[in-house]
Design goal:
By secondary structure, the chain is α+β, with helices and mostly antiparallel strands. 44% of the residues lie in helices and 14% in strands. It has four helices and four strands. The radius of gyration is 28 Å and the shape is elongated.
Length: 118
């Protein structure tokens, strides 16, 4: 049965309750017996244990070292890291924008002169 990590464990527990899970004190723990009772949820199809970030050391299925290794691998980097622009790309983007402004200004000046009959 899964152990879950949530930045907002209370919100996660509330969502599970609203979806029909029985969570909290007094719910029989058949498989996840080491889960803190306040973090335990039972569903017809299984059990869940919801841990907050600060509770990671209490987990029995995943160690803090495994999480650290997973978080530091290249494949696991957040999407915004891979979308970050390099300095040369920022400079090129800025130069293209400035060139576009210059062309637009020159073009708008030509249009005014042609329609004035000069």
């Amino acid at each position: 049965m899964p152990e879950l990590i949530s930045k907002y464990p209370e919100v996660t527990l509330q969502i599970l309750r609203e979806a029909g899970a029985r969570c909290g004190e007094g719910v029989e723990q058949k498989i996840l017996t080491k889960c803190p009772p306040a973090r335990f949820c039972a569903l017809p199809s299984g059990e869940l244990c919801v841990y907050g970030i600060e509770e990671i050391p209490l987990m029995t299925q995943i160690t803090p070292g495994e999480l650290a290794r997973a978080a530091s691998t290249e494949e696991q980097r957040p999407w915004h890291d891979s979308m970050a622009l390099s300095l040369s790309e920022v400079i090129l983007l800025g130069a293209t924008f400035m060139a576009g402004l210059l062309v637009a200004r020159l073009w708008s000046g030509r249009g005014r002169g042609a329609g004035s009959g000069k």
